[in-house]
Amino acid sequence: MIAEAQDFLVETRSLNDLTAGMEAGDFTRPTAFKGWSTDDVLQHLHHYNILADLSMFDPDRFRVEYGRAKGLRDEGLGMVGASRQILGELTGHALRDALIAQAEAMAPRWLEADPATRVEWAGPSMSARSSISARLMETWAHGQEVWDLLGRVREDGDRIRSIAVLGVNTFGWTFKTRGMEPPGERPTVRLVAPSGEEWAFAGGEDVVEGSATEFCQVVTQTRNIADVGLTVRGPVAEAWMANAQCFAGPPNPPPAPGTRGPGVHA
Questions:
Q1: Using CA atoms, how far apart are residues 12 and 102, in angstroms rounded to an integer?
Q2: What average pLDDT score do residues 83-112 get?
Q3: Do 23 and 127 share a domain, yes or no?
Q4: How confident is the model at residue 248 (pLDDT cuts 50, 70, 90)?
Q5: 197: domain range?
Q6: Alpha carbons 47 and 136: distance in angstroms, whole number
Q7: pLDDT tier at 266, thresholds 50, 70, 90
Q8: What are the φ/ψ torsions at residue 149 (nearest 5 degrees)?
Q9: Are residues 193 and 84 in the same domain?
Q10: 79 lies in the same domain as 191
């Protein structure tokens, strides 16, 4: 079983509840993330949830559909434009309905799947557990843009643990995607979960410690390290937290200090 599938579903339900009261015009307001609107966020999540589901249960069709999306991106539509075209201009509450329906349908399939199954993706293949954990991470990270836009502070649950694990495990990736060697051993990470439980990840002498929510915000690049209360000790930890990137793709800089938070607009 893959327990993270249920966590993914709960996080999607949380985002669905958050957007339930939005007016039509609210869905087109720009967020503080690259000017993406809530429609852009939901389209991106829905499209890539579909692709992830295909990668697990219909890999031949996944290759076709991912190739189509990549072709549109390469033609100049970009990630947002490609998803918008493929989804047929699905927007607003109809898009909300489609997103939650897809999540409700796919979560039970993933819950019963073999976590070690390898699935294809944009980069290297990954385990099924990692794939659905990535969907949880994307939902949580992109959902943050909407929480911020609405000036709301999210109350997290311990389901973010798999995001923290992903953040810890991608220490080396943060530097690799920038063409660099890690400057030393991965720091020790000590976090306080939303429930108050302590999560510890053994590492070197350098240390990152504090709120698990804030750690997840930094590694998903929804907050700059300067805007959270994490304690960071040692040059390796400082270099990591200044550039942390747990998601695939080319290197992306974190948001500038003071540009992401509740009520901060693009």
A1: 10
A2: 96
A3: yes
A4: confident
A5: 161-243
A6: 14
A7: low
A8: -60, -40
A9: no
A10: no
